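Hey, quick one: can you model this chain's 3D structure?
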Amino acid sequence: MQHSQPKLIDRIYIRSPRTLLIALVGSAFALRALFAIINFHDIPLASPNFGTFGAEMGWVARSIVTGHGFTSPFWPITGATALVPPLYPYLLAGVFRLFGLYTVQSSLAILLIQSLFSALTCIPIYLTVKQSVGERTAQLAAWLWVVYPFSIFYGATQVWDYAQTSFLFALCFYLALRLPTQKLIGWFGFGILYGITVLSNPSVLLLLPCLLVIALWHARRTNWFLRGALTTIAFFLVITPWIMRDQRALHTTIPIRDGFWLEFWAGNHGDTSSSNPPAAHPATNDAEMQLYQTQGEITYLAGKHTLAVSFVRQHPGYFVAVSLRRAFRFWTGVWSFAPSYLRDQILDVPNFFFCTCITIFMLRGLRRWGRTAPADALPYLIVLLVFPVTYYLSHASMDYRQPIEPQIVILAAIGAFGFRDSARNTVREV
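Sure thing. Here's the predicted structure for all 430 residues.
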């Protein structure tokens, strides 16, 4: 009698949760560490003024280490800033203090730290899917993250907050799904964690009320108002000190960071040579840098606000068209198919095919889940609808979607492999 070959899920299925998590995190970290070791030496040398060493994040970290405080988001020494959120620059500044400013040792250290964040993201991915779908699908989704090219590239080769924010938001997303069954301390802790995540990257801020409303709806037979109030209070306990710092340093109220209108103007001033034209930014345009230094950050950004709003009012059709184009880029990874553009962006063609395939599997997974358990699929749908809006309006690229990449991978895994658990709609305790 001929025995059939075991399926993929049977080959990688691990019954012990502890062994599984060690295997997932260990494999993911080893893979990312390899890429970090290959790339770390070039980062301090890859661009003038150490732009590849975190760009604005790195320049602020340099200012912290050299005693100027949270200032100078560009290479010249300038005043206080709120162009970037605080969490990652302080992490990078800690690395600089230990291993030296813009050294190869600091490059390796920060890439390994990011690799660890990216590897640890396997855990909330696994727990999230196990709770809503089941064990086998959860393992498939987590293993997909282990080898997922975007998580490797942005976690192990680029100095930025990508891996840190992805990990923190994946934790928030998992806890949000568990909130209805949690005691009051769980709701308070969720608010604390979400506040920390927003200090890492405020792009996820709009998702907080959405996830909280869903949790409160499921907990409506309890004292839902107290639970919502505790989460809100905890959240503001975390972010308020930074808002107060911005008020003292810049003499205006700023919700975490103030760079939106610069980014909005960069994407909406008539230049469509790329989604985010380099000439629009002080870091890559000497004239803009001089204007930023002369006017100061707040006045400079107010000017961009005025220019951008005026341009959109005069060219509403252009704004709609380019916003749709940005939405296309967000989910396909390509801005233009013009030969002149692709000559400079040689990776956009293979990235287009890969990214589009991921998007197709993601939508297929959302459709499958929506048909079988719409309540479970709703948080994912909201993430996909709400999170990208800011980038549709300003400018879009693959790196901007990294905070929600774990949720994309979960849906893509379901789209590619389906539901591997017989009782997929039963919520399981972890």
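One thing worth noting: Residues 134 and 423 are 7 Å apart (CA to CA).
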